Amino acid sequence: xxxxxxxxxxxxxxxxxxxxxxxxxxxxxxxxxxxxxxxxxxxxxxxxxxxxxxxxxxxxxxxxxxxxxxxxxxxxxxxxxxxxxxxxxxxxxxxxxxxxxxxxxxxxxxxxxxxxxxxxxxxxxxxxxxxxxxxxxxxxxxxxxxxxxxxxxxxxxxxxxxxxxxxxxxxxxxxxxxxxxxxxxxxxxxxxxxxxxxxxxxxxxxxxxxxxxxxxxxxxxxxxxxxxxxxxxxxxxxxxxxxxxxxxxxxxxxxxxxxxxxxxxxxxxxxxxxxx
Length: 276
Fold this sequence. Notes:
Elements: H1 4-10, E1 13-15, H2 21-34, H3 41-50, E2 54-59, E3 67-71, E4 77-79, H4 80-85, H5 92-104, H6 112-117, H7 121-134, H8 140-146, H9 149-152, H10 155-168, H11 174-186, E5 205-211, E6 221-223, H12 226-233, E7 241-247, E8 254-255, E9 263-265, E10 274-275
Antiparallel strand pairs: 1-2, 2-3, 3-4, 5-7, 6-9, 7-10, 8-9
Helix pairs in contact: 10-11
C-alpha cells in the first residue's frame, strides 16, 4: 500500500505535524490567503502532545473546512470548524476547549486492533464502517490503510470496504488501484444478501469510458451506460473522448450493483479498445 505522504500529496492535502517543520512553514504562508483555521498552531501542538494518537490534516486545494483531526487508533475524524461553530462563545480558549473535549472521548475508545485481538470482530467492523462512512473524501484511502487487515483475517470484508472506499473517492490514487486489483483477483464478488454491493455477468458485456484531461488513461472504471460515459467525457465543460470494449465475464474485476453509474472495474488491454 502507498505511504501516507504519497496519498496526501495526490489529494492536495498536507500533514500538519510537528515532525515536519517545512509543512508548518508552508501552512503559515498560505493559511490567511486560502482559508481560515480556527485554532492557532500552538493549540494544535498542544493537542498533539496531549493526545499522541491524533494527527491533523489540512486541505490545501479548497477553502472549506481546512483542518481535520484523525484518530489513528480507530480512523475516526473530526472537523474542527463544525465543532467550534456549535459554540456561541467568541473566546478562542473556549473554542480550543470544545475541540479538546471532543477529542478526549477518543482516548476512551478501544483501538480497532485491540478489538480484533480480543476477538471482538463485529465491533471492530462496526468501527471500521463508521470511520470510512464519515471520513472526508480525500482521507478515505488513508483511513483504509490504517485498518489492521492482516489481523482481521477477513478478505471478503476487506474487498467490500475497499470497493466502498474507491466508489467514494473522486480521484483514487494509482497505488490504491494497484492494491485493489490484486485484492479483487484474490477474492470473490460480494453479491449475497439484500442490497448486495456487487453484481455478476454470465455473458460478455459492452462497456464504455469517458475521459478528459484529468482522467487516468485506460483506467479501471468503465460503465455499461453510453449516456453516463458521455457525461464523464463532458465534465468541467470539456470535450473528452469516449472509448468502448467488450468484456468477457472472467475479465470483470467487479461490477457495482445499483450505484447509479453502472460502474464496472476491469483492466483492459489498449489494443482491444475502440474510440467512439
